[in-house]
Write a structure and sequence with these properties.
The chain is of the alpha/beta class. The protein has one domain (about 10-210): Rossmann fold, CATH 3.40.50. About 55% of the residues lie in helices and about 15% in strands. The chain has helices at about 20-30, 45-55, 60-85, 95-105, 115-120, 140-145, 160-175, 190-210, and strands spanning about 10-15, 35-40, 90-95, 130-135, 180-185. Strands 2-3-1-4-5 form a 5-stranded parallel beta sheet, with helices on both faces. The longest helix is centred in the middle third of the chain and has 25 residues, at about 60-85. The two termini are about 15 Å apart. It binds adenosine-5'-diphosphate and thymidine-5'-diphosphate.
C-alpha cells in the first residue's frame, strides 16, 4: 500500500526574487475548491524560527544546514505526512531542493561533496514531491526584485544565487518528469494561471489512477 495515502505533494522552487511567494499566494486563491494545504520551508514552528535566527546571525554553515534539515523533519511530521495521509493536496513554498541547491553552495569547502552529504541526510525519510515548479529568471532581474543590498540575507548575493540557480537547473535536467521549469519573467498572472492549471491536471489524473 502507498504509505502516503492518496495525496499530492507540489513544491515551488527558485532563487530569491523569482516570485515563489507571489505564486504561492495566488495558488491559494485559485485552487480554493481543492482545499489545499498551503505550507512553506522554513516553517512556522519554533524550529523554523531557529532557522531564521541562524540565518540572521550568520552562524556557521553546518549549524545552518542541519537546522534547515531539522525544520524539514518537523515540517514532514507536523504538516506534510498527515495531510498526504488524508489524501490532501499539499503545496509547499520551498522544500528539499532548496537545501540541495543552496546548502551545496554554503557548504563548499566545508564538507567534502556537499550535495551528496545533503542528499544522504534526507535519504530514507524525506518524501519526494510529485511535481516541482522551478521559477527561473536572469540574475539581474531577480536582484532588482529584492530589497536593497544592505538589507539582504547572505544567500542573496549575486555569486551565490547564480550557483544556486545553476544547481536547480541541473536537478531539473536530471529529473525531467518531476520538474516543470517556468519562465519567471512572464507576468505573475500568466504564471499563476499556468501553474494552477497544471496542478489541477495532476490532481485529476491522480484521482483517476486511484479509482
Ligand atoms: P520570492 O518569494 O521568490 O523571493 P516574491 O514572490 O517575494 O519572490 O517576489 C519578489 C518581488 O518580485 C515582489 O516585489 C513581487 O511583487 C515581484 N514579482 C513577483 N512575481 C513577479 C512577476 N512575475 N513579474 C514581476 N514582478 C514579480
Ligand atoms: P524564505 O523565507 O523562503 O525566503 P524568500 O521568501 O525571501 O525566498 O527563505 C529564506 C532563505 O533561506 C532564502 O534565501 C533561501 C534559504 N533557504 C536555504 O538556504 N535552504 C533551505 O533549505 C531553505 C528552505 C531556504
Amino acid at each position: 500500500m502507498d504509505p502516503e495515502g492518496y495525496g499530492l505533494l507540489i513544491t515551488l522552487e527558485g532563487i530569491d526574487g523569482s516570485g515563489k511567494s507571489t505564486l504561492h499566494a495566488s495558488l491559494k486563491e485559485m485552487l480554493v475548491d481543492l482545499d489545499p494545504v498551503i505550507t512553506r520551508e522554513p516553517g512556522a514552528t519554533w524550529v523554523g524560527e531557529s532557522v531564521r535566527r541562524a540565518i540572521a546571525e550568520q552562524i556557521d554553515p553546518i549549524t545552518e544546514a542541519t537546522l534547515f534539515v531539522a525544520d524539514h523533519a518537523a515540517h514532514l511530521t507536523r504538516v506534510v505526512r498527515p495531510a498526504l495521509a488524508e489524501g490532501r493536496l499539499v503545496i509547499s513554498d520551498r522544500y528539499s531542493d532548496s537545501r540541495y541547491a543552496y546548502q551545496s553552495v554554503t557548504l563548499e569547502g566545508v564538507v567534502p561533496s556537499p550535495e551528496a552529504w545533503l542528499r544522504s541526510m534526507h535519504n530514507g525519510w524525506t518524501i519526494m514531491p510529485d511535481k516541482t515548479f522551478l521559477l527561473t529568471l536572469p540574475l539581474d532581474t531577480a536582484l532588482s526584485r529584492l530589497k536593497p543590498a544592505s538589507r539582504r540575507e547572505h544567500f542573496e548575493r549575486r555569486e551565490t544565487l547564480e550557483k544556486v540557480q545553476n544547481n536547480y537547473l541541473t536537478y531539473a535536467w536530471n529529473e525531467p518528469s518531476r520538474f516543470v521549469v517556468v519562465d519567471a519573467m512572464l507576468s505573475a498572472d500568466t504564471i499563476a494561471t499556468f501553474v494552477a492549471d497544471a496542478i489541477r491536471h495532476e490532481w485529476e489524473a491522480g484521482r483517476k489512477r486511484k479509482k
